[in-house]
């Protein structure tokens, strides 16, 4: 049975490490089908969605959402104008806006794709009314490299991130992601040593070396169960697998919600929103739907 659309957490207690692995399949196809994306932006969005799932899975279902946004620096636009991926309780949505007059090539570095700019990762924990936002420069060759920069600056623990996307045998887009982190020494029961000291720890060097053998083909292969993938990587270690989180396409736009938002505007402002036909049009970029309202 194909193994897709779920994220699996794991612990390696003997090496003071934890991580998550994700694979996307039909849910990813459902998200991408809303737009006629070219191959390269589709892969970029697929990787961003895998990253959103990896980060969102650390939250409890009622705690909030994770939003990943990448956009160019002002005045330095590249082929990609905006990239957004969003996770909420296992539901994913995303969108990428591409300049139709600029070529986007596979293998372009992030600074070429976006023309500089920043990666913004927002954790909105609604249950505790806490909101955290981390910002890092869009540097390096890949989105995975930028994500590693985020973890280095925000959590300050050694982190390895892998993201992959490609076509399956059926022609559908597949994506996968993997993250493993060395637990802070204080978290693992020892003194807090700091990022550099933890990065040199032999336990982390061992885990990072094993994780470095992970191939992109393994991440996106639906015939390879995620549990088997973890066994391949860490079969010499005790690995504790956590309950999996199922993933699905989940755009949250609805006619009722949008209507309620529009009704909050004064009548004179709604009058300025109406078109020649007397109706207000609202577009959802995530699912490529247009809503028309007679209000």
Structure, explained:
By secondary structure, this protein is of the alpha+beta class. It folds into two domains: 6-249, Hsp33 domain, CATH 3.55.30.10; 255-293, no CATH class. The chain has helices at residues 26-32, 39-56, 110-114, 143-154, 195-199, 202-211, 216-220, 226-234, 255-262, 267-273, and strands at 6-12, 17-24, 65-71, 80-88, 91-98, 118-125, 130-137, 159-167, 173-182, 240-241, 245-246, 248-249, 280-284, 289-293. Strands 1, 2, 8, 9, 10 and 11 form a six-stranded antiparallel sheet that branches. A six-stranded mixed sheet has the order 7-6-3-4-5-12, with helices on one face. β13 and β14 (289-293) form a beta hairpin. The longest helix has 18 residues, at 39-56. The mean pLDDT is 86.
Give me some keywords for this one.
single chain; 295 residues; alpha+beta; Hsp33 domain; six-stranded antiparallel sheet; 10 helices; 31% strand
Short description:
The chain is α+β, with helices and mostly antiparallel strands. The chain is built from ten helices and 14 strands. The strands form three sheets. Strands 1, 2, 8, 9, 10 and 11 form a six-stranded antiparallel β-sheet that branches. The chain has a six-stranded mixed β-sheet with strand order 7-6-3-4-5-12, covered by helices on one side.
What portion of residues is helical? 25-40%
Name the poorly predicted regions: none
Q: Any idea of the CATH topology of the largest domain?
A: Hsp33 domain
At the fourth level of CATH, the homologous superfamily of the largest domain is Hsp33 domain
How far apart are the first and last residues' alpha carbons, in Å? Answer: 49 Å
What CATH architecture label of the largest domain applies? 3-Layer(bab) Sandwich
CATH class of the largest domain, named Alpha Beta
Report strand %: 25-35%
Instruction: Give the number of domains.
Output: 2
Summed up, the helix count is 10
Question: Total strand count, please?
Answer: 14
């Amino acid at each position: 049975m194909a193994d897709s659309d779920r994220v699996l957490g794991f612990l390696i207690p003997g090496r003071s490490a934890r991580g998550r692995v994700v694979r996307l399949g039909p849910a990813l196809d459902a998200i991408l089908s809303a737009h006629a994306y070219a191959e390269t932006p589709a892969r970029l969005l697929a990787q961003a969605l895998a990253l959103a799932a990896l980060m969102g899975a650390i939250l409890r279902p009622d705690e909030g959402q994770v939003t990943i946004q990448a956009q160019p620096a002002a005045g330095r636009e590249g082929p990609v104008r905006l990239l957004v991926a969003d996770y909420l309780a296992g539901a994913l949505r995303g969108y990428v806006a591409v300049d139709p007059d600029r070529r986007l090539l596979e293998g372009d570095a992030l600074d070429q794709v976006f023309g500089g700019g920043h990666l913004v990762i927002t954790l909105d924990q609604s249950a505790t009314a806490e909101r955290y936002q981390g910002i890092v420069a869009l540097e390096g060759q890949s989105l995975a490299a930028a994500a590693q920069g985020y973890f280095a600056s925000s959590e300050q623990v050694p982190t390895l991130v892998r993201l992959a996307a490609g076509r399956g045998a059926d022609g559908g887009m597949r994506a996968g992601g993997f993250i493993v982190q060395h637990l802070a020494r204080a978290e693992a029961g020892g003194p807090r040593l700091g990022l550099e000291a933890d990065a040199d720890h032999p336990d982390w060097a061992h885990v990072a070396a094993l994780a470095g053998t992970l191939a992109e083909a393994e991440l996106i292969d639906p015939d390879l169960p995620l549990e088997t993938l973890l066994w391949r990587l860490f079969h010499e270690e005790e690995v504790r697998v956590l309950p999996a989180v199922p993933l699905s396409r989940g755009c949250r736009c609805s006619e009722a919600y949008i209507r309620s938002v529009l009704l909050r505007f004064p009548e004179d402002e709604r009058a300025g929103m109406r078109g020649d036909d007397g109706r207000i049009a609202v577009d959802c970029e995530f699912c490529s739907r247009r809503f028309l309202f007679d209000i």
